[in-house]
């Protein structure tokens, strides 16, 4: 028996057209038009730009049910809830056409889906426009995040030795932890350790903990390579690397930080060469 189903999607939890809003409007539409919704496919905070069509669980289930011939009608708020990429939009269009699935859009100014030559051209055009709109929205979001970061309005993830206040508007120094950070930099810069594992073992021997746990190589690597300790906050937004000065939070001089980076690079090169040598020896 074929069914009438509803599909909802929002890209973020803060989106104006939330899943709850879409669901309410679709239920009102179905009630007004005496339709019974047999099943619902709901995806909250799922980006159609970042996630491929078949990697979205509920969309994957919807596509599977269409292939099985279970669905006769789909009610959706707008086209861009289904897909943001033009090739995926057209893939769904061909799927609906092949299985004779009626698609109803309830948003204003959303034209009906037609399965003829004109309809195919129209869906291509709308798919391109939806993709472009999605890219523009993403660009604006990234620009806003970058502006907030540069103005100090966005705290983000903080390294060991710092935490945010309750309102997440200010970075607070954790002096006891920062003393440990300074100590680790000084130890590393003595150049007496072949690698960070040796330094981690030395810290364990001395009983120096990282919030009640032993320091690991990765902990030390993250610490030694974080420029915030010399007063530079760095963040990456969609592959864009952005930095701002936070000199009042610095505990390491640029010279000491630079020396630490040289030693980290040298230690990693030695580790890489040793690994290659062991692999070569094993192969032979």
Draw up the topology in text.
Elements: E1 3-9, H1 19-32, E2 39-43, H2 57-67, E3 71-76, H3 86-98, E4 102-105, H4 117-150, E5 162-164, E6 171-173, H5 175-188, H6 196-205, H7 217-224, E7 232-237, E8 240-245, H8 254-283
Parallel strand pairs: 1-2, 1-3, 3-4
Antiparallel strand pairs: 5-6, 7-8
Helix pairs in contact: 3-4, 6-7
Give a verbal description of the structure.
47% of the residues lie in helices and 14% in strands. The protein is of the alpha/beta class and 284 residues long. The chain has two domains: 145 residues, 3-Layer(aba) Sandwich (Rossmann fold), CATH 3.40.50; 128 residues, Hect, E3 ligase catalytic domain fold (Alpha-Beta Complex). The chain has a four-stranded parallel sheet, sandwiched between helices. α3 packs antiparallel against α4. The chain is elongated. The N and C termini lie far apart (65 Å).
């Amino acid at each position: 028996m074929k069914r009438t189903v509803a599909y909802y999607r929002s890209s973020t939890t803060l989106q104006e057209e939330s899943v709850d809003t879409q669901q309410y409007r679709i239920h009102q539409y179905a009630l007004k038009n005496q339709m019974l919704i047999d099943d619902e496919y709901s995806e909250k905070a799922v980006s159609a730009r970042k996630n491929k069509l078949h990697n979205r669980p509920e969309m994957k289930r919807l596509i599977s049910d269409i292939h099985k011939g279970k669905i006769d009608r789909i009610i959706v708020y707008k086209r861009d809830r289904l897909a943001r990429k033009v090739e995926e939009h057209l893939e769904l269009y061909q799927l609906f056409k092949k299985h004779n699935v009626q698609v109803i859009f309830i948003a204003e100014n959303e034209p009906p889906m037609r399965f003829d030559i004109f309809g195919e051209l129209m869906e291509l055009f709308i798919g391109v426009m939806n993709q472009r709109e999605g890219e523009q929205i993403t660009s604006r979001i990234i620009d806003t995040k970058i502006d907030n970061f540069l103005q100090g309005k966005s705290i983000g993830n903080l390294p060991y030795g710092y935490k945010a206040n309750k309102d997440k508007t200010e970075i607070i120094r954790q002096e006891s932890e920062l003393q440990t950070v300074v100590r680790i930099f000084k130890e590393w810069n003595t150049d007496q350790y072949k690698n960070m594992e040796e330094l981690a073992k030395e810290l364990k021997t001395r009983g120096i903990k990282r919030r009640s746990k032993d320091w690991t190589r990765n902990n030390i690597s993250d610490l030694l390579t974080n420029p915030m300790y010399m007063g530079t906050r760095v963040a990456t937004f969609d592959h864009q690397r952005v930095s701002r000065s936070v000199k009042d939070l610095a505990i390491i001089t640029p010279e000491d930080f630079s020396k630490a980076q040289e030693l980290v690079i040298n230690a990693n090169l030695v580790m890489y060469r040793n690994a290659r040598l062991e692999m070569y020896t094993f192969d032979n």
